[in-house]
Amino acid sequence: MTSEELLQIAENVHAEHAKFDYEVNVCMGTGCMSQHSDKLKAALTKEAVTSGKRCHVRQTGCMGLCAAGPLVLVDPAHSEQELLYGFVRESDAIEVMSSLDAAPVERLLTHLEHYFEGQEHIVLENSGHIDPEKIDEYIARDGYQALVMALTEMDPQSVIDQISKSGLRGRGGGGYPTGLKWGTVAKSVGALKYVICNGDEGDPGAFMDRSVLESDPQRVIEGMTIAAYAVGASKGYAYVRAEYPLAVSRLTASLREARRRGLLGNNICGTAFSFDIEIRLGAGAFVCGEETALIASIEGQRGQPRPRPPYPAMSGLWGLPTLINNVETFANIAPIIRKGADWYAGIGTDKSKGTKVFALTGKITNTGLIEIPMGMPLRQIVFDIGGGVPDGRKFKAVQTGGPSGGCIPEEHLDLPVSYEALINVGSMMGSGGMIVMDDTSCMVNVARFFMEFCMTESCGKCIPCRAGTAQMFGILSKICDGKASHADLDLLIDLCDVVKNTSLCGLGMTAPNPVLSTLRYFKHEYLEHIDHQHCRAGVCACGTKDAALLAAEEVTA
Amino acid sequence: MSVATDVKTLVIDGINVSARADQTILEVARENNIDIPTLCHLDGLSDVGACRLCLVEVKGSAKLNPSCVLKVEEGMEVTTSSDRLKHYRQTILELLFAERNHVCSVCVANGHCELQSLGQSQGLTHVRMPYRNPQLEVDASHERFVVDHNRCILCTRCVRVCGEVEGAHVWDVMGRGIDSMVITDLCDPWGESSCTRCGKCVQVCPTGALSDKSKVGSSHPKYPEFLTNLQVMREASREGL
After folding, report:
1. Contacts of A457 in chain B (CB under 8 A)
2. pTM, 2 dp
3. ipTM score here?
């Protein structure tokens, strides 16, 4: 494969598309599929044939606004005016099809001026625009240009230099500089080196990696291949959790397509470079997202972390140097190589470059997938893009970073999103889950939920995490039940310190974060449960005292 | 100069010490009579860094490091005991005592238990958290040995000795988190498992979880140091060949 051949493929695809007057894209991500978008697509295809219109009905990946699924994007060839329909049912197919050369179907139109305003799509640039199972459509949108460029025009070191210069940091949550990691693996000595893609996304409320794998799998494959070239690896593993069957099947199909096109396998693009990728399925353990546990899992061992150092960059899979990056990190690679490090470094903040994909969920109007430049204030994300809290309720907190993160209250909403800023307020970037909570959420109960998650997902290897999370969960339950004392609270705070500082891996080290952050901003809620058996959100069944009685007590106290 | 003879100098608890480059902080500390408490570590077995009792402070590192797997480095400054470390070690022991049913007075290992000794040496006077008291089974199906899961602290010494030294890999861990259990084969009764009846697991078990039926009701000391002797003898016989 040469860049001329890529251009030829792209031309063929464009010529094929030019035969149609309309493109009708139907979202076939997991969200819309659960609303039967597959049946909708079948109905639209049938209708396109019956109506005799020159219309191309195509399956695509996630279009972002999962709350309004199933989504249909109508793109007329002779006009710039794209129409996004939401809540489209199978029965609406005829109406949508007949409206193509007439007025739009008003009742299905989505009105989301603010939703796309401010978003910047790099990772998601192809999501919703291409058929994820067709490699040619990816190539037609500049796909694999970066790989050909890297292989034919750049040496491995200059690829690493570009990634370092771009300022890209690990999107799995830790934020480790990607270029530095690549450089370390490149310098490590080993008979064989591996590249692993971490797709074991397990945070509650997070679905970024799933959407990327479902919507644009070729981009991840391209990123991994460029990485392999840069660090000198010849074998790759894509570790995807088995709970993502659609992502796995699309990735499998895409690997096959890439091999068929000579973009994976021996002598890629006619060069001396050979690389292939195998899929490994995660068996449902959250801890396998931790890199050493993930490596143990690929090796066929029990998925448990081991102490670092040695880091995987030196001694990883089967004791050999291993590069392990997250799905979203790999998805950023091709655009950086294609458009240059300076372009990427121009987006975002001083220390956090580029964009970040977030899964916006919880008490928010526009549930879905968004991609924003780093440095955007949380307020803009929640209230402009997210459309604010529905049903006229009051915003209370936004939770980022999953069970390792924390809750950020209203007072910090003007915070620009970056790795450092989120850590400073007691949360973290994490992989990109963002859960919005309103005044119907009890913060003690939220902390209890995440602690229960960590307790059941702890691997059980080290004592602080295994027994500490269980004890903390016990105390939090006691507080929720209104049966705790101040001594319990003191013990909880002490356990947070012990578990955070003595646990073996990131799961235990960050497990206390949801408690610590809610204690920092919502300590009054803890005290209300303890002193007055009162839950202001009415979530915990901790007592019968009502607000009036409470106020009376406050006065007498 | 080969790696094996590469010598480093470092400071542990204010004492200047020298070490081979492949040694761990724990090894060097013990050579110099500096006591670091351990539970999952055992001379002769691989280290897993799981019990977190041997955590030490290293100057310049915000993170605490398990000394059993931490390799020496030139000029390192290590602190093995501080008020903070002492508090962490006590809390970890508390978590262990509260996790299952550790009732010393009726335990076969009473007086010969590493958990009990650590409680004493680390000055643990009481446990602040509620005892979880799970209802766990005792498997006495083996003709010679008993496993009492109520006393197990999941140090995985039995798993390692069975796999690494005996080469049988009868023991392993099942489940996760607080529900983890050591099991024989695929959770078969010990007596019906592929156990070779060597008894190594019983000797390395730090508590009364694994015991010899013939010792029930009497004093049950264990001799885990057999492991290093065994390895010296294996080494010698290999060299003799």
Report:
1. 176-177
2. 0.93
3. 0.94
